[in-house]
Amino acid sequence: MWTWLAVDPLADPLAVALARRSWATPNRITAVAALLAVSSAICFATGYYRLAGVLFIGRYFADCLDGKVARAQGTSSARGAMLDLVADVAGISLVVAALSWNLLDRGLVSSVVPLALLAAMVYYNWALAYRKQLARRLGQGSGGADHSAPVRVPVVGGWVALCQRLGIMPVPWAVEAEIAMLGLAPLLLSPATVGTVMALGAAFYLVANLVNTRRLWRLTGLSDDAE
Question: Cα–Cα distance between 62 and 78 in angstroms, integer?
Fold first, then answer.
């Protein structure tokens, strides 16, 4: 949702323009995303929350832009995808750690919250990667979840149908949680409230992990039956 609303309108035409420039390689844009992540982490660690939030939002923009440029140039590669993933996971982990350290140092959040968040994020990234691998192997799409089926629940069904027409996911992803916790909340809210948003983010990841585990259970059952 965030990508469709806030990133694509600017990133799509910018990617087309950058694709014509020989110096604008996807790996260089990935390096910019990594640099923005490090800069955001430094700002969080030193208490410059608003600047850190802006830098993190910029990091996500660059993270989306590198893939768009690669597709526009026809230069997509497994190595580029690997570098993008490394910059993504390492950068977000560093930013979460820096924000957690500053919140704990100020006494603005219980130690349980960042520990639960980091643990939930580690499990989420593993479960999501494993689920996608299983789903592709079994011909179950990219993640084993079917969001194309019509929903008969009032209001919810209308929302799902709208998302299908727009080509966006009808439910929040980790992207929305990350942007809320590490981008919008530090930019717009007080530091004390950022700790509350982090607790909500940890709750989101716990629910997401239950969903991922349920889907993994189904996919592994299908895999066993196939064997």
Answer: 18
Report the C-alpha gap between 77 and 83 in whole angstroms. Answer: 10
Summarised one tens digit per residue, pLDDT across range 39-75 is 999 999 999 999 999 999 999 999 999 999 999 998 8
**Which residues fall within 8 angstroms of residue 184, CB to CB, at 6 or more apart?**
53, 57
Q: Helix 26-45 crosses helix 49-73 at what angle (to 10 degrees)? A: 170
Query: Rounded to an integer, what is the distance from CA 106 to the centroid of its chain?
Result: 27
Q: What's the Cα-to-Cα distance from 75 to each of 27, 65, 214, rounded to whole Å?
A: 10, 13, 36
In sequence order, the 6+-apart residues with CB closer than 8 A to the CB of 97 are 41, 118
Listing DSSP states for 65-125 in one string gives: HHHHHHHHHT---HHHHHHHHHHHHHHHHHHHHHHHHHHHHHT-S-THHHHHHHHHHHHHH
Inter-residue long-range contacts of 17-24, CB under 8 Å, 24+ positions, other chains counted: 18/65, 18/69, 18/72, 19/69, 19/72, 19/73, 24/69
The CATH H-level superfamily of 2-226 is: CDP-alcohol phosphotransferase transmembrane (TM) domain (1.20.120.1760)
Largest Cα–Cα distance in the chain?
54
Judge whether 1 and 168 are in contact, CB under 8 Å: yes
pLDDT tens for each residue of 87-145: 999 999 999 999 999 999 999 999 999 999 999 999 999 998 899 888 888 887 766 45
